[in-house]
Specification:
About 65% of the residues lie in helices and about 15% in strands. The protein is an alpha/beta fold. Strand 10 and strand 11 form a beta hairpin. The protein folds into 3 domains: about 130 residues, Response regulator (Rossmann fold); about 130 residues, GAF domain (Beta-Lactamase), CATH 3.30.450; about 90 residues. A 5-stranded parallel beta sheet has the order 2-1-3-6-7, sandwiched between helices.
């Protein structure tokens, strides 16, 4: 690989010596002032800059300082005969990695210095790349942790809902916190409904897209920039999945897990709705039986009162003998006993029904 070198030196003889000293694999360019050096650097990229400290239009640290802000910064090595420690410190502070004494600049030393500098830069780049990869991995891990933790809390919130409206609210709230827009279709005991929000039903194009996607039967389906997630009884059409592949994969994973949990809970809500409807019907039937029993008891009491008054009148008017009165009393008591037995049978039926309901609720609830 050819290494490009810019020599910024005002002494032409030193420039010629440096060009001749560099071995094969080096491509050189020359500048004799700060202005010429800056112009060269603006037009072309160089791997190495050999820089004199004292130049006709200023000190070489001006160039070195300017190069510090570049993303692809070249290696800077100063060449100077100066013994001034402050100048050496200024050179290193400006970003230089070495200082070569001009008076002792043998070709072998120059080539050795350049080889060491290039190896150092290669290792530095490897470390920088590893550091960047590590930072990205940590960021992805932290992001995954946050999104999965958020999804776990959202699943727990969804599982505590007891109605379809609460169920929809929980799902739309979760999606809004992920900055996602969606249409949601749910099966409410064989009745399919499609929603754009907990209060607004989906219509037009959104409804058509959802219905077509559901017909395909895929668990996950990509439709342009949209993603479709489906289980047996719930479907979600996400309208704005981000383009970033890492973020996209992350969201697909959490949404797949979430919709599976939501499916399980929707079945539970639907089953509870059926049970509540059944309980309501049975309770209505029990209330009707109780009402009929109450009416029957009123009629029975009325008949008993009528019979008592009638017998009293009969006894007074007929002037029965003791044997006749005894016989009539027995017939009357027998009739009243039959009414009481009928009433007890009705009460037993109601009691048995209530026992059955209590056992049923205990079993299914």
């Amino acid at each position: 690989m050819t290494v490009s070198v810019l020599i910024v030196e005002d002494d032409e003889s030193v420039c010629d010596l440096l060009v001749l000293s560099l071995g094969q694999g080096y491509q050189t360019a020359v500048a004799h002032s700060i202005a010429q050096g800056q112009a060269r650097l603006d037009k072309s990229h160089f791997d190495v800059v050999l820089l004199d400290y004292h130049l006709p239009d200023g000190e070489g640290v001006i160039i070195s300082e300017q190069l510090k802000s570049r993303a692809e910064r070249p290696i800077v090595i100063f060449l100077s005969a100066s013994k001034d420690l402050d100048k050496k410190m200024a050179a290193f502070n400006s970003g230089a990695i070495d200082w070569i004494d001009k008076t002792q600049c043998a070709p072998t030393m120059l080539n050795l210095k350049l080889e060491q500098a290039l190896k150092f830069r290669a290792k530095y780049r490897q470390i920088a790349q590893a550091e960047q990869a590590s930072t990205e991995a940590v960021y992805v891990a932290m992001s995954d942790s946050f999104v999965w933790g958020h999804t776990a809390r959202a699943i727990r919130s969804c599982l505590t809902t007891h109605s379809i409206s609460g169920f929809l609210n929980a799902i739309f709230h979760y999606l809004s916190e992920l900055n996602l827009l969606a249409a949601i279709a749910i099966n409410e005991n064989k009745g399919l409904t499609i929603w754009d929000s907990p209060e607004e039903a989906a219509t037009g194009l959104e409804q058509e897209v959802m219905c077509l996607a559901m017909q395909k039967g895929d668990r996950i389906l990509k439709i342009g920039r949209r993603y479709f997630f489906q289980t047996e009884n719930i479907s979600m059409l996400i309208k704005n999945i981000p383009d970033d592949e890492v973020k996209q994969g992350q969201l697909i994973d959490v949404l797949t897990a979430y919709v599976e949990c939501a499916e399980h809970h929707l079945l539970s809500i639907n089953q509870n709705m059926v049970k509540q409807l059944y309980f309501s019907k049975v309770s209505e039937a029990l209330d009707l039986v109780k009402f009929r029993m109450h009416e029957f008891n009123k009629e029975t009491n009325h008949i008993q009162n009528q019979q008592s008054w009638l017998f009293f009148e009969v006894f007074n008017k007929l002037q029965l003998t003791d044997d006749e009165e005894k016989s009539l009393t027995e017939v009357t008591d027998s009739t009243l006993m039959k009414f009481e037995e009928m009433a007890l049978e009705h009460f037993k039926i109601v009691h048995d029904l209530e026992e059955v309901m209590a056992q049923f609720k205990k079993h299914v609830g």
